[in-house]
């Protein structure tokens, strides 16, 4: 292990640690690991533009999706409807703090932070306002990768509709449509963001911040 | 196989930049995060989270998850009886979805991670290619078992007609969320590269034709990356 290799010219597979020469990819190309078949590097098409627009749309849909009622029920002449925000208030009111916290985190807070983060990063790239602080910002952004559960919540809505549909009169409200579009926007903005490209670009823009070691 | 580890390099888990490993923990030259070559004590952590998740899964199935009040009379339902209700009503697709999300997925995750830890530790019949795929599937499945929690949360909120009907969440819901979150932590703390390391070690041990007395000494030494 005494021979020095310049790590800048290599990539390693995240899954199996196999080492490869760094490929130069064009937009839309994917480099796969020969060994385990997982993706090494991916250059996404129009990544910055796409994630900018998707996350902007997502942030605009955020308020109606949270505040408008998702669905309502009618039973024995009484009507009641609830939004995502009501959901949390009612849960706190009834003393289920843990579920209230988790629903707030996974279905509201994390998606919003992720959308806002994607918007901020793609905004900085789109208008060429790169700052060194973006390095830290983007690193923090990665911590949230696994924890947005809008899709699961959507399935939860569908299942609870099935539960309610046979002994109550169920009505679907505008909030549900907003929520579906919000889900689509947040998924698309996360999928469109090209992390390798952003890291590469940041590294090239701030060589001084990234040069702890150049052997 | 030419790996980053054998060349003294290491991949930053956050920004995926290759760094030459000079110290452990190594600071990433790009994102300045600290990291280890392999996740630290990965198997132990995975095992611990897994056992905790399994323990929490027992009360999650025994206690009622949802309590429906109709005209003031409570009727309790736990996860399995909730599924039974759907089957009685003939709503098979929904019953299957809930059964998959709330029973099969957590169990498969817990059992699967036990198996992976076992394989990565002992290397018995280890096929890193297939097992790392299994790990991927387990990681993907993680959040979907939150389904039941969200359903109960929605039911509590929407069905609130005072005396006529209302729904309350039972104590099982807390245990169930704990199970789901712990299995997610367990999956996060597992490092699939250990599977490949182990397979490579086994190959070299085979090729070198080591005397069998030496073999047990070399095997455990590879497991946790240099401590301290």
TrEMBL record, chain A:
The chain crosses the membrane at residues 52-76, 96-125, 171-193. Keywords: Membrane, Transmembrane, Transmembrane helix. It comes from the Bacteria. Pfam families: PqiA. The keyword Transmembrane helix applies. InterPro entries: PqiA-like (IPR007498). This is Paraquat-inducible protein A.
Automatic annotation (TrEMBL), chain B:
Keywords: Cell inner membrane, Cell membrane, Membrane, Transmembrane, Transmembrane helix. It holds the Pfam family PqiA. It comes from the Bacteria. Its main location: membrane. It is found in: Cell inner membrane. The chain crosses the membrane at residues 47-71, 91-116, 137-157, 163-187. InterPro entries: PqiA-like (IPR007498), PqiA-PqiB_transport (IPR051800). This is Paraquat-inducible protein A. It comes from Colwellia marinimaniae.
